[in-house]
Each structure stands twice: as structure tokens, then as C-alpha cells.
């Protein structure tokens, strides 16, 4: 760890760092360090394009979830009460270290627990009163017309109709997938990375989570039995029926958002992951999970 970063953490969080090791495989856009010592902490260094004020707001919402939902961690507060400080123009936050490994979506037990945790998050979200709006919302191209192969007027019309009937946007995690869920001792031990948090309809996050936990290994189609089971477990926990007619259209919307975001970052090119999402966007058209 850069000595200057260690000094910032020590000064603001009252945590002297004797040694720290870089963490590989977590935090796609962040630099993460694990501090030495019992339990340890995760020092999370976000990219400079994320503002400290924006993440302060986000982590404040995450802390409310952490107080109400087991398995959700809250960031530590600095001595001045902030969750985010700045080093070299980059936001820095400190989190409890969660031991374990990213969730294995091929495990039926793990998928069930992921569905149950998502239901608890959405239950909590509907009771929250969030003050203000996110200072720097994450852009989402939900009605994308930037790329000819992603245009689908029929899907747009369906989604407009669906959204017109909805009420009650709530804070949602925004990046609920296996690598942000830490599995340890046969259970989910932690939910990480709240940086994509947004105010949205929970059905949209449920649909995307169904895709993330039930897609095939090629990432080009659903394992339909798994998708149905994920929704069953979510429904049972929430004691609320899910209108499954909209799940596939919302998955296709999410795929289009992801592909557009990837292409924008890559100058219009697709990597293998984005290419599989394009195949899924096409292949899921007109299909239905069913009741």
C-alpha cells in the first residue's frame, strides 16, 4: 500500500496500518486492500470519477440497510463522522473485511439464499425514507437507440406500458450478482459494493438478479428451471406474487443497458461477455418464464 494512502487511513479512521495486501478479484473498478490483524478491514479506493459527496450519500443509504438486514455491512465512520475521505483525488472508504469467496451460482442452496436476501432488501427498501437524491446518479440507457442491433420498438412499448402502471421507486443495490455476495460456512456472509445503488422499481432489480443467478454458463440463455425457482423463493419470502410476464422483457432491458454501457466504454466494440449478452438479448425475445 502506498505510504501516503496508509497515512490518510490512519489519520482519518484512527487505524494505523502495519501492512496490507492487495485484493484481486473483487471490486472491478476499485483498488482494494486488506489490512493485517484480527479480522482486518477492507480499504476501498474508488476511481477519481466517483465523487466523495456522491459516495457519502450512497454509503449513508447502505448503512441504513446494514442496520436492518443481516448480511449487509456498513462502512466505518472516520473520526469526523464521514464515511468517505479523499486521497490523491480518489474517494477512500473503510469496510469490515468479510471472509469467504464469491457465491457459486451453480449451488442451489446459494441461489435460494440470494433470492431470500434480495427479498429482505426489497422489504426494507419499501420502508425507507431516503433524504434527497443521489448527487451523481449512474447513467442507464434504458431505451437505447445508439446501436442498430439493440433497437426494439416493441420492447420499448412494452416497457413504457409496464412503467406507467408502477408506483413506488425505492433504493436498490444496483449490482446484485454473485461476485458481490460472499459465501462462507454454508451461508451468505456479506453483500458488497453499493456503488451502483439507484432509486428504481424493485421488479427491475429482481428481473436482473434472476438473470444473473439463472443464466447458463455461456451467458446467452436462461436455465429456465433455475429462474422459476429463484422467483418462487423470492415470492415465498416476500409473501407477494410476482407478475412473471414482465421478467423476460425486463431482463432484455437490462441486457441492453449493459451492452450499451460496455460499448460506450470500449468505443463501440464488443468483448466476449458483451457478445454473449447481445445473443441473449436476441434469443430471449418473445419468451416467457410463465406462472
Notes on the protein architecture:
With 291 residues, the chain is of the alpha+beta class. It has 2 domains: 3-97, Phosphorylase Kinase, domain 1 (2-Layer Sandwich); 102-283, Alpha-Beta Complex (Aminoglycoside 3'-phosphotransferase, Chain: A, domain 2), CATH 3.90.1200.10. 40% of the residues lie in helices and 14% in strands. The protein contains 8 helices and 10 strands. It has helices at 3-13, 52-68, 108-125, 153-164, 202-214, 224-238, 247-265, 272-283; strands at residues 20-22, 31-35, 41-45, 85-87, 90-96, 101-102, 170-172, 181-184, 187-191, 198-200. It has a 5-stranded antiparallel sheet with strand order 1-2-3-5-4, covered by helices on one side. A 3-stranded antiparallel sheet has the order 6-8-9, covered by helices on one side. The protein has a two-stranded antiparallel sheet with strand order 7-10. A hairpin with an 8-residue loop joins strand 1 and strand 2 (31-35). Helix 5 (202-214) crosses helix 7 (247-265) and helix 7 (247-265) runs antiparallel to helix 8 (272-283). The longest helix has 19 residues, at 247-265. It is globular. It starts with a helix and ends in an 8-residue tail after the last helix. The mean pLDDT is 92.
What order do the helices and strands come in, and which of them pair?
Layout: H1 3-13, E1 20-22, E2 31-35, E3 41-45, H2 52-68, E4 85-87, E5 90-96, E6 101-102, H3 108-125, H4 153-164, E7 170-172, E8 181-184, E9 187-191, E10 198-200, H5 202-214, H6 224-238, H7 247-265, H8 272-283
Antiparallel strand pairs: 1-2, 2-3, 3-5, 4-5, 6-8, 7-10, 8-9
Helix pairs in contact: 3-5, 3-6, 5-6, 5-7, 7-8
Amino acid at each position: 500500500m502506498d505510504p501516503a494512502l496508509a497515512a490518510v487511513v490512519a489519520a482519518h479512521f484512527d487505524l494505523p496500518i502495519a501492512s496490507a495486501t492487495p485484493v484481486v478479484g473483487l471490486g472491478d473498478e476499485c483498488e482494494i486492500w486488506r489490512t493485517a490483524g484480527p479480522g482486518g478491514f477492507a480499504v476501498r479506493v474508488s476511481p477519481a470519477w466517483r465523487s466523495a459527496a456522491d459516495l457519502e450519500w450512497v454509503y449513508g443509504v447502505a448503512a441504513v440497510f446494514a442496520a436492518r438486514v443481516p448480511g449487509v455491512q456498513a462502512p466505518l465512520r472516520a473520526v469526523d463522522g464521514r464515511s468517505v475521505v479523499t486521497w490523491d483525488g480518489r474517494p477512500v472508504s473503510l469496510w469490515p473485511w468479510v471472509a469467504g469467496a464469491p457465491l457459486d451460482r451453480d449451488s442451489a442452496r446459494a441461489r435460494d439464499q440470494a433470492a431470500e436476501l434480495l427479498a429482505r432488501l426489497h422489504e426494507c427498501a419499501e420502508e425507507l425514507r431516503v433524504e434527497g437524491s443521489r448527487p451523481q446518479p449512474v447513467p442507464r440507457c434504458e431505451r437505447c437507440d445508439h446501436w442498430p442491433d439493440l433497437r426494439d420498438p416493441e420492447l420499448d412499448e412494452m416497457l413504457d406500458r409496464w412503467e406507467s402502471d408502477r408506483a413506488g421507486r425505492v433504493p436498490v443495490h444496483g449490482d446484485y450478482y454473485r461476485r458481490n455476495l460472499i459465501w462462507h460456512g454454508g451461508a451468505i456472509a456479506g453483500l458488497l459494493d453499493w456503488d451502483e445503488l439507484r432509486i428504481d422499481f424493485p421488479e427491475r432489480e429482481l428481473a436482473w438478479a434472476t438473470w444473473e443467478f439463472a443464466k447458463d454458463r455461456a451467458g446467452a440463455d436462461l436455465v429456465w428451471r433455475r429462474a422459476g425457482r429463484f422467483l418462487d423463493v423470492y415470492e415465498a419470502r416476500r409473501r407477494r406474487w410476482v407478475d412473471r410476464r414482465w421478467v423476460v422483457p425486463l431482463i432484455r432491458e437490462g441486457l441492453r443497458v449493459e451492452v450499451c454501457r460496455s460499448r460506450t466504454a470500449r468505443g463501440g466494440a464488443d468483448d466476449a461477455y458483451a457478445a454473449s449478452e447481445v445473443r441473449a438479448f436476441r434469443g430471449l425475445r418473445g419468451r416467457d418464464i410463465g406462472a
